[in-house]
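Final report, closing paragraph on structural work. Over the funding period we assembled a curated collection of sequence-structure pairs, and we close with a single example.
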Amino acid sequence: MKTPAPTLALALLLAAALTACTKDEPTAPAGTAPKAGEKTPAAAAAKPGPAARPYPLKICVVSNEALDSMGKPYVFTHEGQEVKLCCDSCLKDFKQEPAKFLKKLADARLQPQK
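Its predicted structure, as stored:
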């Protein structure tokens, strides 16, 4: 059976539209998954979402150094909380005891900022 030209044209148009809407993102090799707290390439580029609680401090929650003391702060979201570190080296310490640092942020939200 021969396909009518308008149907074929519509199918090609739909296929082109769907292809244009997809975004190629790097993926991990098959069988691997990000570790807990590790950012995927897409998440690494993402800013904290609007639902993330804002970071309440002007210092690194891990080192207590000024956020800009090591250049641009390392910013990510952990369990709905925006976290800012003075550098990506502090991430290792954060990952070892995230509850400790999240509690510090929760306590800071309750304190009036100076």
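The longest helix spans residues 5-21. DSSP finds four helices and two strands in the chain. We thank the funder for supporting this effort.
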